[in-house]
Structures are given as C-alpha cells and as structure tokens.
Amino acid sequence: MGKPLIMFHSITYAMKSRDILFQYGIKSTVERTPRSNANAGCGYSIYVPNKTDEAENILIGQGIKILGRAERDGTL
Amino acid sequence: MIYLDNAATTYPKPISVQNAVSYALKNYGANPGRAGHSMSIASAEEIYRCRLAAADFFKAPGPECIAFTLNCTHSMNYVLKGLLKQGDHVVTSCLEHNAVMRPLQALSENGVSFTTAMVYPGDNDATVDSFRKALRVNTTLIVCTHASNVWGIRLPVERIAALGHEYGIPIAIDCAQSAGVLPIDMSDGGFDYLCVACHKGLYAPMGTGMLITPNGSNLKTIIEGGTGTNSISMVQPLTMPERMESGTQNMPGIAGVRAGIEFVKSHGIETIYKHEMSLVQYLYKKLSQMKGVKLYTPEPVAPYFVPLLSFNVDEIPSEVIGQKLSELGVAVRAGLHCAPCAHECMGTLEQGAIRICPSVFSNINEMNSFVTALMKII
C-alpha cells in the first residue's frame, strides 16, 4: 500500500475529504503536508493509515481534486 | 434605547453569538489554515464548521463554495470586478444599493455598460418583463438586490435567474436585506453568486460577509496574497475558497457567523419573517393614520416585501426627524441609505427618508413607543 498521506489544494478540501471518508467508515486525520513532499510549500493532507487506495478512489469518485500521495514524514 | 436600525446592523446580538465570539477569542487564537499545530487546526475546524453551516443554510453545493469576506459590498466587488470586462453589458434594477451601483459606475469607465430595469412592487410579471427588455446581445451578468434596503420591495429573483439562464446569463444576488429573513436556496433558485451580509439578518458581528458561489475559480481576483496553500507559487490559487480569502481571516467573527446561522435556524426563518412583518404592518397602519406622514409603498405584505418601512413627515428633512427620534431614545436611519437610485424611484432623492426595521428581538411595545415618540415630534 504505502504513501498514506493524500494531499489537497487546501485545508477546506482536506476537511471535506475527511468527512466524506468518515461516511464510508474510513478514518483519517487532517495534517500539514510535510515540506519534503512535492506540492508542498504550504498545504494540507489527510493521513489515512488504512484503506488508503480505497479512500483515494472514493474521493476521486466524489469529484475531489487530489494533488497526490506521500509518505508521512515523522522523523527528525 | 429602542433600536430600529436593524436593516443596517442587527442589535442586540444573541447571547449565543456573543459567547461564540468570546470562546473563539479565548480558544482559537492561532491562524486558521496556516500551521499544523493543534490550535491552528482547531481554528481551521471552526471555520470549516461555519462553511458547512452556511452551505447547508443557503443550499450551496459544498463548503468550498463559501468564501468569507468583510461584508456584502466586499463580496459584490469580488463578483463584479472579477467577472466583467470591457464590452460587457449588465442588467440591474432601479432599487440598487451603492454596493452594486458604485462598482458598476467604476467599471463603466473601463468599457462596461449597464441598464437599470424598473421594478413594479406587487407585479412580478411586469418586473421580470422589465428585466427581459433590458437584456442585450452582450449582456454577461444580471445583478440585483433580493430586497430593497430602502423600501423593502422584494424582487422575484428566482424568476429573474430563470430568465437569465434562458440566455446563458449568470445572476448575482445582493442578499444584504434578505439573508436570515427570506429562504434562499442556491440550487433551486438557480443563483450563481450570492453576496451576503452576516451582520444583519444572520445576527453575526460587523465585519463579516460571504460570497457564495460554485464558480469562484472563474473570477479574476482583486486581492491576492497569502492563503496558506502552495506558497512556493507566486500565482494566486484557483481553488475556492482560498482564492478569495487572502490574508488572515476574521476568526472570532466567523465563529459568530456560525452561531448566528444556528440562532436563525433555531427560530426558523418563517417565524422570524412573520414576527417582523407583523410589527411592520402594525406600524404601517399607525403611520398611515398620522397627519403629515408620507408612506411610499402599499402596505407591506408577504411575499412581496421584507420587513422594513421608510417614511417622511411633510417636507421636513428626514435627518431632522431622525435626530429628534434619537433625542427621544429611538434609533432609526435617515437619509439616502447608500441607495440614491432607490430614492430616485420614489422621488425622495432630496428629502431622503426615515427607515425603520425591527429584528427578532423587537416587540409591539417598542413599536408603540416609537409611535408615541413620533407623535411628540410632529
């Protein structure tokens, strides 16, 4: 699977996507997109630890524009 | 004080709004949509909740369609200056506020033309026909008020929107006097742009407005800057709502907007409208019996009016009556109400008028006190 972060244009779409996924029983949290990722330089993502591929497909099906997927940058 | 200047800004604000603003100041003290720390995210969550509430209230397609602005004028400028270009023609009404007329005037100096359609109170067929006759081949936008801020006359905006869409022309509605008083359904009504003042019928703090549209990405921007997104690019993001929200937002005010929307929903728009209309109709009857009082419209009745009323006393300048009422503890708005076109329609450009507008908090005793005060003056 890998790359559990789904990146968006804005925090509004990140939160909207989180709410959509919740309706499908998929839990996610809104996070700042790590600087090390492409499309960064200020941006927001949702961290979807489980069913990330399914989540991405659901969001695409709902017309949400996704910037890409990324690894979660949790190390210093 | 008896406050009857609610068409300008509602007062008092509900306790729930006061509490929401206070809570936001205490707990949401970080920039929303900028950082990743917990208070910034919490602030952003509160703003997102307000977007959800507004989208639901106005039946907008989604929370991303809600852009927060300073006020209705701000929203209207975004639409008019973002959409219109040289050679475009606009149809508007004869009852518009300067929030519409001044941007149109400024745009006319850059090759945008406009036609004002007459509004016929109580005759929606005639009003729609008037808009139809004003259309031209190069008409690219219809913009009109939902209800006159001077005379309370309600325009048949759903029918005007349908007319525009017959010809592929979008419509922008000035909802300054209608939001919170009249039901507004963006999808059913076929509205492309809603410009909302939150400090009036939504009982939010001053300095809060909304532009509601699914088409914001198509608007040119008149303000660019930091949005907390894609900062590496020098180009303003296309994505709504950030496209229209450069700079730090009015976080406590927006928290107040959400509380205001919930307050209106809890009372019910229909209940609020009926309550305020009954007070205005009561006043209309009282005023029509007073010697020297001039009323300019038929008695306000549903669904053709919103609950506000303007009048004059003989030929006395409206500001004189307004001042004397203030001295007796009654707050009204006298003058031209930033809507000279609406006054020109009724022949009150010279004298202005005295406007009274109740809120959900107004009551019959206050109406009687107002009448007593006016009787003392005249």
One letter per element, helices H and strands E, the order of chain B comes to EHHEHEHEHEHEHEEHHEEHEEHEH
Question: How many DSSP H or I helices of chain A?
Answer: 2
Strand residues, percent of chain A:
15-25%
The count of helical stretches of chain B stands at 12
Low-confidence runs of chain B (pLDDT<50, min 5 residues)?
A: none
Return the average pLDDT of chain A rounded to an integer. 88
CATH fold name of the largest domain in chain B: Aspartate Aminotransferase, domain 2
Largest interface (C-beta under 8 Å) = A-B, 17 and 24 residues
Distance between the termini of chain A: 23 Å
Q: Key features?
A:
heterodimer; A: 76 residues; alpha+beta; Alpha-Beta Plaits; 4-stranded antiparallel beta sheet; 4 strands; B: 378 residues; alpha/beta; Aspartate Aminotransferase, domain 1; Aspartate Aminotransferase, domain 2; 2 domains; 7-stranded mixed beta sheet; 40% helix
